[in-house]
Amino acid sequence: MACRTRIDVPQGPRQLLHIKDVGHGGAQVDVGVFATPERRWQVAQELLALLPPPAPP
């Protein structure tokens, strides 16, 4: 079964970390309102390491 979670890594200092369910419903959670840009990026990298690698097309 393919992983249905996508992590969008913040690209700019004001961007939040976006955790998205790419399956049915497409829920999204924004994380990091009170974190520094460096900490948001670090959390994104830690979460990406926990997800399985993307399935080949």
Task: Describe what this molecule looks like in 3D.
The protein starts with a strand and ends in a 7-residue tail after the last helix. The model has no long low-confidence stretch (mean pLDDT 86). The chain is globular, with a radius of gyration of 12 Å. The protein has one helix at 37-50, and strands at 5-8, 17-21, 28-31. With 57 residues, the chain is of the alpha+beta class.
What is the fold's blueprint, element by element?
Blueprint: E1 5-8, E2 17-21, E3 28-31, H1 37-50
Antiparallel strand pairs: 1-2, 2-3
> Percent range for helical residues?
10-25%
Average per-residue pLDDT, rounded, comes to: 86
User: Could you spell the SSE succession in H and E letters?
Assistant: EEEH
Topology, number of strands: 3
What proportion of the residues form beta strands (DSSP E)?
Answer: 15-25%
Shape: globular
Structural class estimated from helices and strands? alpha+beta
Q: Radius of gyration from the CA trace?
A: 12 Å
Largest sheet: 3 strands, antiparallel
Spatial separation of the terminal alpha carbons: 14 Å
The main sheet orders its strands as 1-2-3
Please mark out the parts with pLDDT under 50 across 5 or more consecutive residues, or reply none: none
Summarize the structure.
The chain has about 55 residues and is an alpha+beta fold. The protein is about 25% helix and about 25% strand.
